[in-house]
Write a structure and sequence with these properties.
With 216 residues, this protein is α+β, with helices and mostly antiparallel strands. It contains 7 helices and 4 strands. It has helices at 14-29, 43-52, 79-87, 91-95, 104-117, 122-186, 191-215, and strands at 3-7, 34-38, 68-71, 74-78. The chain is rod-shaped, with a radius of gyration of 57 Å.
């Protein structure tokens, strides 16, 4: 970005010459690069300046007087507005340039920013961010541990159930067999079986008697 200062090198007005010197001297003191454009010797410069000064900034006769200041194509102001910016330590803002670090204007701009937006402490923000991440990570780790413990408990329960299942099946099988055995014992004896049993007893009885007589 180039600062353009339109001036008249052969002006007969002492006031205009003094204003031009003040502007150029202050820009040099601030080490701001600028391009002086003479409107007295160059008609193109004169026409360009008159066409690009905003209407509301022109005097009543419509002919703006030097010095007029531009940042490339953007109009900055005349001597009066430049002087006001100088008094307010806002020349760089007036010119549309960033103030150099450590300059008075930079400090004023920083104060204004703080008043408008509040202090910005990178260290505090970073610490809070790290702490919040740590808390979140800690919570996630705790949840993971709880989930692992719950899974282990479920696996143990499954193992116990798998071990108990065969035992319960064996017990159930034994109960079924006992019930079947009892059922066989409790079945009613038919008449034929009763008669056969009586005949067997009668046959055994004489044999016992004969054996007793022989022993006597």
């Amino acid at each position: 970005m180039v600062i353009k200062v339109f001036l008249a090198s052969s002006s007969g007005s002492t006031a205009i010459k003094k204003k031009q010197q003040d502007v150029l001297g202050f820009l040099e003191a601030l080490k701001v690069d600028y391009a002086p454009l003479d409107i007295a010797c160059n008609e193109d410069n004169r026409m360009w300046m008159r066409e690009n000064v905003p209407v509301e900034k022109k005097p009543t006769n419509g002919i703006p007087l030097p010095p007029q200041i531009f940042n490339e194509e953007s109009y900055c102001g005349d001597y009066e507005t430049f002087f006001d910016a100088k008094e307010d330590n806002a020349v760089f803002a007036f010119l549309g340039l960033p103030p150099p670090p450590g300059s008075k204007e930079a400090k004023e701009a920083e104060k204004a920013f703080i008043l408008e937006n509040g202090p910005v402490e990178n260290g505090t923000v970073e610490i809070e961010t790290v702490e919040s991440e740590t808390v979140e990570n800690g919570t996630d780790d705790a949840e993971d541990e709880e989930n692992l413990e719950a899974e282990e408990v479920e696996e143990e329960n499954l193992d116990d159930d798998s071990l108990k299942a065969p035992v319960k099946q064996e017990e159930a099988q034994e109960e079924v067999e006992d019930e079947e055995a009892k059922g066989e014992d409790d079945q009613p004896v038919s008449e034929e079986e009763e008669e056969l049993r009586q005949l067997e007893e009668e046959e055994e009885a004489p044999e016992v008697t004969e054996q007793e007589e022989e022993d006597e």
